[in-house]
Amino acid sequence: MSIKNSSQGLIERTVWFITRLCAKLGYMHTLMLAPMAELSHRALRELIHGFFTSFKPNTDSFAPAHQADVLYFTEMISAAGLLAGGPFEKWYIDNGPCPGSLVYQLLGADPEQLVKAAVLLNREDCFGIDINMGCSAPVITRTGAGVRWMENPEKAARLIERLRKVTNKQLSVKIRLGPKNSLRKETDDAIHKNFPSLLRFCRGLEEAGLDLIILHPRLASEKFKRRARWEYVELLRNELTIPVAGNGDINSIEELTQKAGEGKVMAGRLLIRQPWAFADVFNGMQHCCRSDDRKKLQINLEETGLCFLELLANYQPPEFHLSRARRFFMFFCGNVTWAEYLRNKINREESLSGIEQVWRNYFAEAAV
After folding, report:
1. What is the DSSP letter of 179?
2. Are residues 146 and 269 in the same domain?
């Protein structure tokens, strides 16, 4: 091996170590895009990323500071599907536009499959690998995956220990306050009394080599029926040495800004409705929230919607176009008057070109 190659390898390992150390100490990646089925794909990442570059969608330049403060989690990737080499897996593992800020989320119930899938993803250019231990959808929990992992703390810790041996990426899990039927009564008092069980679960993962925990502070059975109990995010932060990110009930840029000031935060639906939210928050952080210094975001809703459709056509297979477009506009239409009327018209279309025409017509009619 030449001295040049040896030195390059040493530099790369040093950069990796420093980056991982900074992330583990909580100095990086304050803002995180949540893993959302049919939404957290490359087209959306491109759209969000675009607002960091002169606050214009679809530009090629990249802000290094943005890379240090944002993580993009992919939609959940089936470990079994990845290992089987399904026809759409290449779209799920597309790491653009910024691999250094990408986290792959893996879903599965079989430890062997999850470890083998992690080995494959470790070869990809990405920042981290996340294990889904929080999804409560019946189709997922029936297989033993998602939040069902929280029913067996020892098994979950052994999985993290094995994963730590096969990946040098950031290793994280996304969890809830507890699995289904973990409490006889889902009262605030009962949840508080159950906190030691949650803490033991998290400490077991921490001791096994985990780098980050993302807590969605609801029970598995609650879904969106009850408020997200953010006080438990803070309780975990005070008890663990690894960073804890909170997720849930972030409905405005103001709320996102507040949560980002308290620690790591993951947002989902807000970024679909307002893809510029991270750029807005980051802009405020860069200027110490002094409104006179902040560069005003110029948002053109029509252009943003059209930009998304173009990105969707470029970065997703035709089989995904309609489902992904309808899911996006279900939230994004919340920015306009007569949102439900527009959603219904979009959902009746059977092509991206049809959706584009409906979108253009809406703004043309509104301008009259």
Report:
1. -
2. yes
